Amino acid sequence: MGAKFYARKWLRGPARAVANKVVSLSDVQGRLMAVQHAGLQSAVDFEENPRTLADEQLRQAVSLMLPTHQPKAEWCRVGGPADGGYVMARDFTGAVAVSLGVGWDDTWDAEALRLGAVSLAQFDPTIRRPPRNLKKASFYRVGIASVSDSAAGLVSLEDALELSNPGTQEEFVLKMDIEGHEWGVLDNAPQNWAAPCRQIVAELHCWSQIGEADFAATALRVLEQLGSTHVPVHLRANNAVPLVSVGAYATPSALEVTWVRRDLAQAIEPLSTLRHRLDSPNDPRTPEVNLDGWLRA
């Protein structure tokens, strides 16, 4: 046996020890998050009257995200079983799938194509290339911003949709996970930008800032504008991020919301739970955050 064999054998032990240490630290992080969630879970409830302006603003924002309709199409989970997968309508056939924020998880992108999207446009400035070379996919190494700036490698939402489907009239299915930039992007988008979108799923960040006047005004304005063309059909907490206290209440610092265009949705009776059979934790080490107390909004 050669020197390479013995070198690999010698290194295997230290490598295994490092890997075990990483797993151990990961478990500690998960346990700490679970403890943090348990400490604030009771405050994820609107039974008490609001005590602060932040409480009032949170209640108002939640009321604009609570599901009031369901898709006319059947439900499906698009993407993986953990972070990066979303509960949506099975309504992709003939649409252009647009993925704003890819990272190293393109399971939503691949599933959108499998569900019948005619093409896929991927946008992400943080990676050099997408995880996989998916058929019918185009990748743009640019960020999404309020205003296009080619020198800075940024495009507006309007321009991103034009790049995704140049010169044609195809409809879109849009996924947005751009780490807090969504508020400025959506607030500065043209008024009718969402009309061609059959459905939109977004991870909405920065809820720790709901007590700040500027953020609250922007968030409420964006949610009201989305509600003029689309209706929320699904709302859940990202359980991989901390809960934050805003006064009498607590909120996850990131929420996942699915909207369906009004002509493609039907009204439902008031919900008794926000939990959906297709929900799955973003982080399997941490219990899901129960948002049912928000139904009192």
List keywords for this structure.
about 300 residues; alpha/beta; 7-stranded mixed β-sheet; 6 helices
Q: What topology does this entry show?
A:
Elements: H1 3-40, H2 53-65, E1 69-71, E2 75-78, E3 86-89, E4 96-100, H3 107-114, E5 119-123, E6 137-140, E7 143-145, E8 154-156, H4 157-164, E9 172-176, H5 182-187, E10 197-205, H6 213-229, E11 230-237, E12 243-245, E13 250-252, E14 254-261, E15 265-267
Helix pairs in contact: 2-6
Describe it.
There is one protein chain. The strands form 5 sheets. The chain has a 7-stranded mixed beta sheet with strand order 6-5-4-9-10-14-11, with helices on both faces. The protein has one domain (3-296). It has 6 helices and 15 strands. Helix 2 packs parallel to helix 6 (213-229). It is 30% helix and 24% strand. Mean pLDDT is 91; it is low at 4-9 and 15-25. The chain is of the alpha/beta class.
State the distance separating the first and last CA atoms: 70 Å
Give the overall shape: globular
Strand order of the largest sheet: 6-5-4-9-10-14-11
How many individual helices? Answer: 6
Tell how many strands the DSSP assignment holds.
Answer: 15
Strand content: 15-25%
The largest pleated sheet is described as: 7 strands, mixed
Helix-strand string? HHEEEEHEEEEHEHEHEEEEE
Helix content: 25-40%
Uncertain stretches of 5 or more adjacent residues = 4-9, 15-25
Mean pLDDT: 91
Rg result: 21 Å
Q: Any idea how many domains? A: 1
Q: Quickly give the structural class.
A: alpha/beta
